[in-house]
Structures are given as structure tokens and as C-alpha cells.
């Protein structure tokens, strides 16, 4: 899909490299499972089922988990109006629009491609942001769709999910497999499977987090250039980040699993080593980038015209 969101070749390179490395990891992981479990059909069926579910139903899964509901123009005319304007400026198909009845101010985009995408905002976000700030957030989310990084993150996370499922399967097999049927060889195989799966999960986790942090910076940049108002996006970031910090932790735990898809993370802030495992760059990094763009634009009020592949 081509759009007027500014292209980001560094993001494209990062996505390609990440998928290539994860692909190699995936091939090695499946080969190891086949050798250890001696069942090619079982491994292939499980892998295909998990990947297919993530790719085809990622939007429905995310909406269900976050209590999101597709809304029509009659229900939220102003929200639809902003999305319509941005899609017209960006020259891209309009995604489905959804609203989640949550006080946590946030937004996310999901879907396997531009023709099957959903942009969802929470009622907490709608209550807190001014129209221009909301436009910046929605432009950020639409840029994820235009850059195709939503689909890449969805597929990339498949390997980690599969590895996690294998670890759980092996663990419960040891617990409930029946003492009479277990021998030293079986225990050794299960132990190796768990070890390989945990290693694969850790490696895929680090690779996905590194890509996720960069794609957020790319989305901020593309949104700021499209709207021509980076200061409004910066204001939205500051407001949302501060308001999330005041929401009780127990109310954010459900959202934590979807941090990588959110405009700002529900959890995961930190310094030093903790930043290596964060799905988002720090607020300071994002505001610094938007400040540079604002200076370059000279507070211009017109949108960007760069095209994206």
C-alpha cells in the first residue's frame, strides 16, 4: 500500500532484518522440536494453527481482550470525522473504528493489512484530549497501518507465543504425565524441549522489543509530518503518560499484554537495563524527536506530503 505518510527506510530495514532473524530462529526451533518430539505432523499442525490464528484473528483477539467495540459514525461522529480527514490526507483506506470503554487513556491499531485494519481508542483518551491532540494520536496509529509494522509485529510475536506454549506443555506433561509412564529418557527430552523453548522465547522477546521501540519513533515522526503539528502530538504524549501514571496498577494489568500495540505503554517504564525490555522509547526520547521536527517545520500548519512505500 502506498500513502502520503513519509516513508521510513530504516524501519523497513529493521522489519526485514527482524523477520529474517526470527525466521532462522523459527526454522531451528521447529527442527529441534521435530528431532526431540519425533513428530513432524504434530509440530507443524501446532505451529500452523498458532500462526494462522495470530495472523487472521489478531484484530478480533485484541478487540475482545481490550473490550473494544466497532462503532458507527452515528455513535461517534467526531471520532469518525477525524479518521476520515486523516485518511483523505494520507490517501489510504479507512480502517474500522472502535472504542474501548476503559478509563486508561490509550489507543492502538491492529489488523493484518490496510484493508483489514482497526483503530481503537479508549473512552478515557476521548475524554482527556483536545481535538488537535486526538488527531495527532490517530495519525500515529494510522501510520502503523501504512508502514505495515502492525502486521510485522503480529507475525513476529508468533514465535514467542509458540515457544511459550511449548514450555507450558512440557511443564504440565512432567507434572501430570503419570509417574508410571515416565522414564529418564522422557524426562531428559522434556527438559531439553523446555530449555530450547525458553531460549527461543528470550531471543524473540529481545528482537521484538528492539523493533517495537523504533517503530514507535517512526510513527511519531510520520504523524507529526503528516499533520504538520508535532507540538499537539507532544502534548498528547505528555498528557497520556502523566494520566496513566495516576491510574491504579491493578486496573492496568489486563492491558499489559498488549503494550507493544499501544500508543503509550500501560507498564514497562524504567531506566538502565529495564529500557532494553521496554516496548516503547522513553517519553524524553519521543518529545526530543518531536521538538526537532517542530523546529524543522517552523510551526508550519500544513501537513507533510512524503509518500510511503
TrEMBL record:
The keyword Membrane applies. Its EC number is 3.4.24.-. This is Protease HtpX homolog. It is a multi-pass membrane protein. It comes from the Bacteria. HAMAP family: Pept_M48_protease_HtpX. The active site is at residue 141. Gene3D superfamilies: Metalloproteases ('zincins'), catalytic domain.
